């Protein structure tokens, strides 16, 4: 499950959430990676929680205009993979909008 569309003021923190699941036998191999405009993300915090899958959060502190881009969550277990993307826009009027659907492997 991914987050709902949200609008916040620029310079605030924001996060994207990605939930990846797989068969129990493949769970130890499950990995999640975040990309921005097809490159590994930087200047962010990524947190992973394992339960019945991986719940991954990409956290950006004090969003800026250059945080605008296409963010992708890549999930894979060495056998299968899936990805979901969200377009993040930090608008010139100081608004930030984001959305992301979940990844299921």
| Total DSSP E strands | 9
For the termini, the CA-CA separation is 13 Å
Tell me the Rg in angstroms: 14 Å
Share of helix, binned? under 10%
Which shape, going by the Cα principal axes? elongated
Strands of the largest sheet, in order across it? 1-9-8-7-3-4
What class would the helix/strand composition place it in? mainly beta
Order of helices and strands: EEEEEEEEE
Low-confidence stretches: 1-5
Beta-strand share of residues: over 45%
Number of domains: 1
The CATH architecture name reads Sandwich
Quick one: CATH superfamily? Immunoglobulins
Largest sheet report: 6 strands, antiparallel
Average pLDDT figure: 76
| Count of runs of 4 or more consecutive helical residues | 0
Level-1 CATH class name: Mainly Beta
CATH fold type = Immunoglobulin-like
Give the arrangement of secondary structure elements.
Elements lengths: L5 E4 L4 E7 L10 E6 L2 E2 L4 E6 L3 E7 L8 E8 L4 E10 L4 E4 L7
Antiparallel strand pairs: 1-9, 2-6, 3-4, 3-7, 5-6, 7-8, 8-9
What brief labels describe this structure?
105 residues; mainly beta; Immunoglobulin-like; six-stranded antiparallel sheet; 9 strands; 0% helix; elongated; disordered N terminus
Compact description:
The chain has no helices and 9 strands.
Polypeptide structure, described:
With 105 residues, the chain is mainly beta. It has one domain (6-98): Immunoglobulins (Immunoglobulin-like). The chain has no helices and nine strands. The chain has a six-stranded antiparallel beta sheet with strand order 1-9-8-7-3-4, with no helix packed on it. A three-stranded antiparallel beta sheet has the order 2-6-5, with no helix packed on it. Strand 7 (69-76) and strand 8 (81-90) form a beta hairpin. It is elongated, with a radius of gyration of 14 Å. It starts with 5 loop residues before the first strand and ends in a 7-residue tail after the last strand. The relative contact order is 0.34. Residues 1-5 have low confidence and may be disordered.
